[in-house]
Protein 1
Amino acid sequence: MKRSPIILTCLLAFSATVLAQPASLKIEATGAPELTLHGKDARQQLLVTATLADGAVRDFTHQAAYSAAPAGIVNVDANGIVTPLADGAVTITAEADGVKSTLAVHVEGAAHEAPINFANQIVPIFTKAGCNAGGCHGKASGQNGFKLSLLGFEPAEDYEHIVKEARGRRVFPASPENSLLLLKGINSTPHGGGKRLDPKSDDYALLVRWISQGLPYGQESDPKVTKIEVLPKQRTMTLKSEQQLVALAHYSDGTVHDVTRSALYEPNEKSMAEADEEGRVKLFDQPGDVAIMVRYQGKVTTFRATAPLGATVASLPPSHNYIDDLVFAKLKAMGMPPSEPCDDATFIRRVSLDIAGRLPNLEETQRFLADTDPVKRDKLIDDLLASPEYADYFANKWSALLRNKRTKPADAPMNFGFYDWIRDGLRANKPYNVFVRELLSASGDVAENPPVAWYRQVKEPQQELEDTAQLFLGMRMQCAQCHHHPFEKWSQNDYYSFGAFFSQVGRKPTTTKENEAIFHRRGIATAINKKTKQPVRPAALITGPMEIPADEDPRIALADWMSERANPFFARTLVNRYWKHFLNRGIVEPEDDMRETNPPSNPELLDALAQHFIEGGYDLKTLIRDITRSQTYQLSAVPNHYNGPDRQNFSRYYAKRLTAEVLFDSINEVTRTPSGFPGMPAGTRAISLPDNSFNAGSYFLTVFGRPESSSACECERTQEASLAQALHLLNAKDIQDKLASDAGAAAKLAADPRSDEEKLRQLYLIAYSRAPEARELELAKAHLDKPRKGTDGMPLDAAKSKRMGYEDILWAILNTKEFLFNH
Amino acid sequence: MLTIPGLRTGRFCDGIARRDFLKIGGLVMGGLSLPQILRAEAQSGIRKSPKSVIMIYMAGAPPHQDLFDLKMDAPIEYRGPYKPISTNVPGIQISEHMPHCARIMDKLVPIRTMTGSVTGDHDSHICYTGRSAKGVVAPPGGWPSIGSVMTKLCAAKGGEVPPFIGLAPDARHPPYGSPGHPGFLGPSYSAFRPNGAGMSDLVLNGVTSDRLADRQKLLASFDRFQRDVDNSGLMSALDVFDQRAFDVLTSSKLLNALDVSKEDPKVRERYGKGDPKNFGDGAPRNNEHFLVARRLIEAGARCVTMNFGRWDFHAKNHSELLTHLPLFDQGFSALVEDLHQRGLDKDVAVVAWGEFGRTPQINKDAGRDHWPRVGCGVVAGGGFKTGQVIGATDRLGGEPVERPVHFGEVFATLYHWLGIDLNNVTLPDLSGRPQYLVDGWQPMKELI
């Protein structure tokens, strides 16, 4: 394990160059054994794959030399793009290092210019060139009077705007090259967006031909794209290597066409890879998994690349449960040795912060460190889960996500009631599906049924559907309100059909002023699709329309669907959310963006967690127990020689900064100066605050990013660093007062008759849950013993000097990364 | 994190492509925090853009027809008692109570047709974001103001001065005291407020500078925690901000900038003093804020906002106006002249405006009420084409008849001028949706 990283790098470089001799080659086009090209416009990107002597697979598309026999039928360029020249049969050969592979190709109708279909051939040009992007002509208001539908989702509207609007001035069939559309596109007439088209390109030629053909729209019977496919679907690649992709569109008439140059490519992890306009993926030097989203005409698919680190995983720590089996299997496949298991001191601090949102206290730490019971970690987990702080901490999390927001003082009873309902449910370990069902189907007055509060905050069916989708199903549906979701299969119809579950939410005034009761309004649940103006029935994304009788509350049907064991979203979303809470990174990241084009880094792990969660009856505490008992969770945060760059395979614990509330409480704990909040009992911890209304009075909580409960996104809790935070922690009067308080830790430590060494040991146990190292003790003692002068320049007496010394040491501890982070 | 859709390169402030940032020094891409960008910029030796913005919110909305758009052809019950005066630009006339602005009209651009307020409710929001606070769809968390956007997208100019400073003290009517909110960008992008929470963090609290230096040393020797346990960039970002915080605390640059007594008395006299007390439930008429704004920009701030007075004259419009307009005229014109004299007029853009205009007809209390159909604003500096008027209203000053200008267009102009690619740069809101900085507005051709 102590092998030098330099040697490893050399090995990797060695394997990448010397061993890259192909043992065999394979040339492909569409995956079919033969390729047929129809018509003059047909193009085909070839894919050449080499299998090396060691069995590894590499892309050779751009290394291979191409030839075609007989000559004159097709042209193959150096990038492996085939262009038809004449009808006939031809064999294309790819050759590299003396190894060959061939592909039989038929060309039909090479002289034939098929009538152009606007939607299939012209619109993708605008998409590729960025004309219809959200920042340009694709935005709702268009750009400088010319509007295109966003990403070409509405070809009929685009046709209208190009051909008919503005009295047809944009296109000029008598002299196609002089069409404004083209003059602007090539920027020969000044164009705000600059040059988007190359007059020498195929795209330009096709546009010219389309205009000269008299601007055909195409026939109703013309084939439509039914799905897109990418070759290869996945690949194990070496770091910094490249892979050519082939994008294929399947049409309703059964034909398949190459659209590699028309499709758009986007990696989900921009730190790992980039993809160019021709579908060439380039990995950077970060090991892990990356997905390249391929988009064409509202259809999406993904290419998945795995870039192993390639180190030898000589030994693994003992597996504790199924989680470890799956994580370690992945680490082995990635060649990524995990860090060592963490020590007891790190563990008690880590797990107390993660489950109970607080530092372990001195007694707990001392007892735990001295305990010789081999299952003491499991016991500690159980103790923490049974503690009221567990419920406080997770109620704090859920209260923000469920928008328990104080918008006016009169909301207070509702806020308290809703918070208590959440907290009590967590305390009693109410099954998660029951929790969500009670919330979504809440009816009545908030005083009798607290979860009604959610409907009081989330007032419109659209908001209700968006929050529900994002919170409980990991789907960000917002985009589909106004247009087809760019990164997803969801259409506007899916959006409004999902919203129809909330169409029968009735609201009526109650006897209390400004109060509102929620009830099920009898009727057939229906929503109007704002695009088509047509009514739609409730449908839960993948279910198809549901028949719900008029006197049944559609929200119950929705909750039923969520609780179905086979529901692919509900349990996965929750386990991913909780996984991130503990491991600081979702298996899908971000945790509420679980679209197909953003795949999990370890799908088997996500499935297993979801499966266990469902089978265990949606038991949240069991889920937490499974996660925190795992060796994976208990790995050290300190990287070894190899796994430093790991950001998604959990080969070590990813350190995270304490959240605003936890940091606030922890500072109070270490300085022994409890804080109060207006209207709350003395000593109330920030972690137990019921709603956001306390942020306004606490600059600390605001500046460290305690959420305002105004969205269903965890991201509202900002974890970004800022200058204001640094200034506050280093210099705020509040903090200074805590350090200098007569009742605080510095005063008490200075007055304590024990030796400095004893006191420092205790301080370290409280702040870091560990004993100080000899070096640290020396530093601290030296600082305490240093002679000090007062503001008047006179030497201070010993007691005062010592107290100042302890203030400084406390201040320094609070500002160390070791304190600020859970690690 | 910043996302830029499509394949074309988006540009930050300073016209630097994102990709250029990312390639610098082998920096890991993705999830770039501000300090990472700063460091990347520092490493690459890219020259920082000196461009900055000063925004002045005339809280409560001034009467446009009594400032820049006098309607002498309107009946007396519309036009009020004030006369227009000529300016140093032939053909442009403004209120007789703005003699200083008249003298430097060649350095100003009055806009007579500001539009955009949907509901006519009082809010600073539209003046700081370009979007009406009410009557339009807002993402969860709300729209970020220009100072917050600049904090996110533009490199800081200096380590010792925060990039975004809001001079407005809190006001009894909260929007009048807002320096512009960070919206969905979150509190890390808030304004520093010398008159609000957090200001006390900028001066040492019961600790001498010697003791702070001593503590800094102690911290450095204590804080040996392995930085490589975190590869998200957060820990190094904290280190960078800690360093900057020490710079702020140990250099007196920020405090000096805030201290107008350090200024030449003659210069102070030009700005006037005004009144540091809040005017009713509004902002103060603090002329020194104009001077402080200039000093802060010189010290390295990117965006300074200030709120001035309370112009909500529902009664006695014309006499009340005299409690505000002459002070504003003096302070604002002094700022613009000063920027020119110091050669900052190309690098600093100044905008002053209220949230809407006021009713053309004078009401029974001799006041003017809210009039969201048209209002006024004034732009200076930035190397813009000054000495012209943009827009015209009808005979009564009630409707734009020529070139209505939406608040968003001015923001588009500023962002464009700062070097931000409006067509490609987006900021993700709390639902993950990429949001453009302005709603499709284009930079104003008249200005650039």
Protein 2
Amino acid sequence: MIDLIVFLSLLALGYGAGTWAEKRHYRSIAEREGAMIDMPAVTLKSVDIPEHKIRSAQLVYGSAVISVDYFKRILASLRNIFGGNVKSYESLLDRARREALLRMKEMAGDATVIVNVRIETAAIGKQSRRKNIACLEAMAYGTALTVEK
Amino acid sequence: MKFTPRQPGINVNVTPTHPLKELAILAGGLLTIVVGVYLALGLAVDLMVPRLSMELEKKLAGAFIGRLVETDPVADTTRSLQALVDRLQDRCAPLPYTITVHVKESDAVNAAALPGGHMVVFTGLLAEMASENELAFVLAHELGHYAHRDHLRGLGRALVLMTASTVLLGADNSINSMIGQGMVLTELSFSRKQETQADEFALETLFCHYGHVTDATSFFSKIPKDGDPGRFGHYFASHPENRRRIGHLEDLARERGYPPGKPLPLPADLVSKSKPS
């Protein structure tokens, strides 16, 4: 009985806190994406800029680590039984990638363009099997080019 | 190509399903499956019991034996009871079981039929016995449960799980020991019909063995009416169910013309045990 109460409290806490944090994060992401929209980050390896005009080229990267909340984890473990899209984790990955891209752009400062952008994802905290603290990291990196006007 | 910065209007990477809706669907589905399996197990018991071989039943019994061996064996009493059961079984109740009697120290006025032919008699029962016939009736009643394999049905859904785990994982597996440990001997429940059939079996056995059925019902009516029968109320006469059983046995004895006779005294080994005060 105690176990059940603890479980349900954790579930409610996970849902409440998780939803709140996610909404807040998405608001912040949308805001900053709007603000940085003028700095293109592309996956092209090079852009059509004469070499002598490029003032600097610099590695830039951004990474974000986002934790799973209890509610999402339960939802995902139920998904593990039946199979299908793990919808509860989708927003986590989405948030992590977009946050990583934003941080990368932040690092680029006043660069003109970021080329050769790549995004990597890694799960962290998987070492201990029992108390597996499920977090995921997304990392975005690229080359920031500053072009003379 | 001109680069025009713009934000995508929709987020294709996140499914817009509400998480609570997903939880309801998944948890509801799981619950439905669990309930379905539970109900199916209940139905499977009746289908399985007649098909369960004795060998498999002996293996199943492994889960209980461990605890029975631990109980303090009252050697003389056990031997004497075993002899009585053997005599009953020998001529009048030929069952395809080798019945092993275990005596367990307990105030419970009861006896239990466990899988694998392990019959448990509580010392509380022995203390109440006045004649061999009376005791024989109770023992024959338990033999009746074996004859109809009620002891397996009494295990209920646990039996299906144990059988499945024995067949799949062998006799000594963790599922069996878990169920065996969690089970209380006196919790084996029998339906009214099963009890009645076992009573009839006991009455026939008693007549066959002694030639009369005196003291068959004395046990029911002799137990004091005071005191809460509780869950050990299997045989208490104050219980309306037991009045019905007494009536049924007396009717049956009259109907079949079973004569009265002289009850035998208790075997000496049991008498000493039966007077604890």
Protein 3
Amino acid sequence: MTFWNDPINFIANWLTGLLTGWGLSTGLATIIEYALGITVMIVFAMVLDIFLVWVERKVVARFQDRLGPNRIGPFGLIQPFADIIKLVIKEDITPANADKIVFNIAPVLAATSVIVLWAILPLSSKIFGVDLNVALLYLVAAGALGTLAIIMAGWSSNNKYALLGAFRMVANMVSYEIPMVVTLLIPTILANTMSVQGITRAQSGMWFAILSPLAFVIFFISAIAELGRSPFDLIEAESELTAGFNVEYSGMKFGWFYASELLHAFTFGGFMAVLFFGGYGGFFGLEKLLPWLNNPFLQALVFIAKAMFGYWAIMWIKYSMPRVRIDHMLAFNWKFLTPLALVVLVNTAILNKALAGLPAWGYTLGMFFSNVVIAVITVEILRAHGRKQRKAEKKLTPQMARNQEQAP
Amino acid sequence: MTAEQIIFLLTGALIFSAALMVVTTRNLVHAALWLVAVLFGVAVLYAILQAGFLAVVQIVVYIGAIAILFIFAVMLTRKEMRDKGPQTRANWWIAALLGLLVLAGLVFLILSQPDINRTAVAMPEGLDTVRVLGTALVSPDAYVLPFEVASVLLLAALVGSVYIAGIGKKP
């Protein structure tokens, strides 16, 4: 075992030797190592977060045909530090009638709900926090904490806009959690496990995005809804709610909400990579020919690149789509996404057993084309429905005109 | 004392004090938040007992649902969300007596177990508890019948609520 093959265990062994050499017991040494490991992971996530602020501002500028921050440092790279200094030295205001304790816990909880996700994020086959066998449920559980944080912020601010934003968030999260959980079951079926390491290993031959493209699309949409990003950003619709749940927050407390939102988006990019694009691996069997692809540092780079792409796709949608109306948002979920997710789930479960005897290419083709068939049928149903609706509208219009004539 | 015992005692203290706060606080929303703390503590207990699946489901189901309860608490209560009336009734001491009796009975029962001082057997290496649970839930000689009955019950509740919501509306 060298540093290049297994960095975490290498450092852990070295630290154990060092600490026990100082006369500490092995148990205490292990606790100190875990605490250090957690701290390093959080620091890595937060430093990445600072970088994400710059990425976000640069990318939104590109989408809006601007240059973005370019004054401080090369390519504006030092801009996020200026932002942080501004946030830190801003006056920290707590509204007079706010519920002070809840008001102050909420931003901490919001950041926590994102950072706990990094415990299960597999950066590479050797660099990860913990390989839980219930990792996908853990992802959903962390989302529940995030919802709670937003409600706490909205309620404790004692502001009607903040409370309305929180109410909308609950409607959003509760409804989009269902297609999300259903689509999380599809990688579980395909990989026969809920552990993220197992799911990654199961994709070394073929990405799940190819085996079940519809599941990926549904997961992507519900992930954006879960993040509360545009087009599902009704929680902070600035034209209706000024800024939604965080309207009363200032300074670094607002900064925590902002930072956790960015990190959340990146983390979900990472989970999309893990669940559907092979995570740190997924070289289509190439790693057997080229063993250097299994280097943990290279795997971590591949993972971050894929996660960055997912993050970019989320930004792409955020900055090019208008906000949806709340009734459309709920109808879209309950009348379209949830039934479709259930159909795809049943289809995957049946075909996974039915095609198990086929060779790998037959299995892949069968899975892919079953998804295509479902997509075509869905589009046909939507088209028929749309046509019926347009006909009904045409019929209605002359009648409505007559009604208006009869009215005094 | 091992690290596990320290964590257990801290969690127990958290659960106990938070549960006390749920029933004594006058602010309904704070009560809901303290309830979240209690349920989180229970999830930690499950995690200590190596029941990772239960711990995570506890958080998904209960804390996720408490968020909704929270919203209902906000929407259904009076403006200042404070109860100004007395917090106890005249016969509170009967309830306290009953509670103490139940506690004494439980403590007696647990202490009279013959293997109370036994340490837990370590889980075999590589045992996937979720897989075992999943197999048990759908195998005919285990829990498939209760599992299916519960599913049908939930489905019936779902259909019923949709029907009630649809009464009086044109299709």
Protein 4
Amino acid sequence: MQAQDLLEILPELLLLISACFILLATPFLKEAQTNDEDVFYTPRGASVAFQIAQLTLLILFVWFGSRITELPQTIMNGLYSIDPFSNLLKCISSIAVWATLTYSKHYLIDRDLFRTDYIALVLLALLGQFVMISGANMLTLYLGLELLALSTYTLTAMRPNYARGIEAGMKYFILGALSSGFLLYGMSMIYGATGSLELIDILRVTHPDAVMRLVFAFGIVFLLAGLAFKLGVAPFHMWVPDVYDGAPTAVTLIIGGAPKIAAFALTFKLLVTGLQSLSTDWQPILIFLGICSLTIGNLTAIAQTNLKRMLAYSTIAHMGFMFFGFLSVFDDNAYSAALFYVVTYVITTLGSFGLLMVLSSKGFECETIADLKGLNRRSPLLAFVMMLLMFSLAGIPPTVGFIAKLSVLESLVDAGYVGLAVFAVIASLIGAFYYLRVVKTMYFEEPIATELIEGKGFAKIILTMNASIILLAGIFPEFLTTICLNAMRSSLQG
Amino acid sequence: MILSLAIWLPIGFGIILLASGSDTSKSYVRWFALFGALLSFLITLPLISDFDRSNAGMQFVEKFPWFARYGLNYSLGVDGISLWLVVLTAFTTVMVILAGWEVIQDRVAQYMASFLILSGIMIGVFCALDGILFYVFFEATLIPMYIIIGIWGGKNRIYAAFKFFLYTLMGSLLTLIAILYLYNQTDSFNILDWQQVRLTFKEQIFIFFAFLIAFAVKVPMWPVHTWLPDAHVEAPTGGSMVLAAIMLKLGAYGFLRLSLPIAPDASLWVSPFMIALSLIAVIYIGLVALVQLDMKKLVAYSSIAHMGFVTLGFFIFNPMGIEGGIVQMISHGLISSAMFFCIGVLYDRMHTRQIADYGGVVNVMPRFAVFAVFFAMANCGLPATSGFVGEFMVILGAVDYDFVIGLLAATALILGAAYSLWMTKRVFFGKIVNNHVMHLKDINAREYLILGVLALLTIGMGVYPKPFTDVIHPAAIQLLKHVAISKI
């Protein structure tokens, strides 16, 4: 390792430093009547921490955003790679976490969660995602994954005196640990077969007709099981609805938003960068997982009355759909379609959970579909925002969700999977039903409460911008897709 | 630029209304919406005057790169097939805004905006020359219509809105796969390129059926028509007018623009099947219409029967049939919207659509009865009304194709007369049995205006259809020439 390498990972260091600084420094900002038992709980300290975190995230956003076209390079003796692909994903993750915190500020204050340790954990989770996105070695990837996972386990169970959250955190922890075990076991098999942990080396020594075929196959199965757990893909999806539902909405967004990008990066790195030559082994498994997810996710979502659970099942379906982008062989168009799908999915998810938080207030948790009744009368703007989000998730033009589905379907047809494309389309039709029900509830039913939704002006502005992006990127998709394609090309060349 | 303006002007007005309108300034909202609709309609008039009637190709073409990675273009154009549909759409929107003037008191701005936006989107479908652009507009029509039915509809509106949305979405999703497949074969999303590409018979069959599901649901053809009566019965008057006048035409238009030219061999091979379905729609649905107790349902079923004529005309592959089909589309747009408006007039006053609740309306609403009887006559194809021209041409074409088919199609005239006139008799004539009918007020100036304009156009088109057929003829001939050349 050289001193220059430290310069390259400056943003990661900045993130780490601000997380530590928040933890260490803010307890000293004591207030007249603080709760002595809990050093982290100081309202003024939390506001300062919040501002520091937001500023850091904006700096990171600009930093990575301005480096999207940088030349690829591998640093830290091949452990860490920095290329347009990683810069793009980190840029989006940063702004996603920024938006998450913006939406959740009032929500957190109302639920005694607006604490310095909460904010520090959010930043650490982001650091874990960065490491996953940039890791060029299986151990680095695993390290990043665990940093992300441990932070989110804690966040899930963090709300004081909230049994559902603690239960969800417990489930998440046990299943997450199990899946990490799977993943690590798979990695060890691959390591045993290739003698290397570095993805580049693994790519070099794997051949479809290698002697160690069986070991590879086992390794791939375990890797995929672990990945499927992390992504929440059926049949490894059991934790998703419980955790999404049990966690406070702000935490749900932290789990369901930005980390999906990192999970995509992890999948891409392991399967494409590392094990590309064995694609005939892992592609059938992806098809199976994708079909399961689309079926189970969409069908179960119909039966949900809880909006958070419904969105959880919708996540399962969307992740399955994303897998379909991996089915062509070394095609940058197809992979960038999957990348674009994930990016737009994250932007849409941010909006939908953000809206739930804006609608929640002290003592009122907006989480069932019925809570949205007559939203159009109470706030036409927010109802319109939610309608755009739902139509985007359903993939109806002119929202960006349509372009995302179109790209993935195009790659499927291109790879010769016309039957699978038809299946995906039918599953989307089933999906449209429950998204539509949300729109119905907002527009066609009479409101239960008559008071208007006031306050939270800034979050509302960002929410409106979020929805505008979904509409504008749907009408003018060129910009975002070109970035995704270029990032993917440079990554595949490297 | 005219086409772009025709699409985006109403959408722009709609967005302004959504953003600024509220229920506290209803009259401002109404006048603004009317202004927007009128302006959007006037914009389309130069299309008629500047249209080159000797040219069978695309005119007023606009083309800009939109999404270069997939070679998507924002490309628009009209030919003889689509020209009148564009004008009809803009015109119907003006009528619809007027029709909702007094009835809609709740969320006026959203109501008016939905129709303006819907109008722009539907014009987009008729103008799009890029496959994805077509698909985007085609799908996007669902959103405003879903909201129109769901918010301002009748008792069972939510069920109807869902049925409408899911039915039509189911149809169009498979179209997407066909579009992607064609892109895969041609590396282009241009519909005109697709029309030239060579395809094997098997591919053509696949593409034809993928399109068929979408368009058949939209038209709607028997047996996928069941969403239409529900949607019509529950939709507000304006919604029914747009649905019958324009939205059904989107499917029929799709046959002409995509199915026939892209998969000609498959179309010819499937045509006996399509003719059979059309005849079932004409005869069987005509019989179903006869027994309806609800006026709106009756007119909805009559719409299905009339659209059966349109598809029949398309699939007999002769100039008379295709031109007759297109003329029938335009004429049905005028007559059905007038019929739905008439029912709306009665419903606003009596709040019932049951035929049995009426009787003797002519005694209290003589002026209205004149119009209503006139449109009922036009609906069953009375000569000198526009309804006659289209049906007559299609029947001529059908006789030319096969006498028995022509004969069967002609029975529709009898059935049409039966259900239209029988309903008229039960509603308007006879003694007044229901006390509420005694207190009905005759139509006011606004209603008079709407019905009068529609009646004038219906007669005008019936007496002198030349301006329409002149435009349609070259395009129809070219389409037939294209279809006659095998693509295998």
